[in-house]
Amino acid sequence: MKLYTWGRAPNPRRVLIFIAEKGIEIPVEDTGEGAALKGEFLDAGPHRLVPMLELDDGTRIGEAMAICRYLEATHPEPNLFGSTPVELATIEMWERKCEAEGILAAGEAFRNAVPFMVDRGLPGYSVAIPQIPELIERGRVRFTEFARKLDAQLAKHEFIAGDRFTVADITALCAVDFAEKARLELPTDTERLHAWRARVCARPSTQV
Ligand SMILES: N[C@@H](CCC(=O)N[C@@H](CS)C(=O)NCC(=O)O)C(=O)O
Questions:
Q1: Residue ranges of the alpha helices (H) in 23-84?
Q2: Whole domain around residue 112: which residue ranges?
Q3: Is there a single domain that holds both residue 45 and residue 113?
C-alpha cells in the first residue's frame, strides 16, 4: 500500500492526520515536482489529484474522504466518523461543510492569486483553467463566513461535530491552516475558534 501526497497541500494532509490518529503505518510518496505534480503520477490517472491511496493489488482510491473511509473500515479504532446514526450524520454534515466552505473557499483565494497557479485555477484538469482574480475576494468573504460559523458551533461543543475529536476537526484544521497560506486571517473576534485551533494543534497527529 502507498499514499501519494504533495508537500503540505491541504487535502493529502487530511489523510496524513487521519493516519496518524489511527496509528497506522503507510509508506508515503511525495509526487511534487517543483510547483506541480509529477507527470508520471498524472499519467497513471484517473483523477490527476492527490491524495491517492494505492492498494497492493493496484487499486487506486482518490478523494481524501474516500481514503479515510477505507481506513476507518480496515482500522475501526479510534472511531473518527461516528458510531450512532445521529453521530454519523452529524460528523458527515460538518466534514462536508468544512471541505465545501473552508478548504474550497481558501483554495479559491489561493489558486487565483499565486503566480505559480497560472492557468491552474482549478486542480485536476489536463487543460488550462485560467485564474479569475475576482474569486480571491469571494474566497475571503466565504472563508470569513465559515470561520464565524465554526466559532458559533464551538459555543455549543468542544469540537466541530460534537464533544470529541473527529474527522470533521481534521478537515476544519486543514482549511484554517491552508487559509493562512492564502493570506486569509481568522477574524480576531472568533475566540472560540482560536482556542479550538490551539487545542487541536496540540495533538501530535496534526504536526504533519
Ligand atoms: N476533493 C479532493 C481534492 C483534491 C485536491 O484538490 N488535491 C490537490 C492538492 S490539495 C491537488 O491534487 N492539486 C493538484 C494540482 O493543483 O495540480 C479530495 O478530497 O481529495
A1: 39-44, 64-74
A2: 85-207
A3: no
Cell of 45: 490517472
- Distance between Cα 5 and ligand 1 center (Å): 9
Which triple of cell numbers denotes residue 77? 479504532
Q: Which residues of the chain have pLDDT under 50?
A: none
Residue-level pLDDT at 2? 97
164 vs 181: CA distance, rounded Å? 27
Atom of ligand 1 minimally distant from the CA of 178: 10
* Best residue among 6, 49, 65 to mutate for probing ligand 1, ranked by most atoms within 8 Å of CB: 49
CB of 98 shorter than 6 A to ligand 1: no
Closest C-alpha among 63, 147, 62, 160 to residue 105: 147
Which pLDDT value is given to residue 34?
A: 83
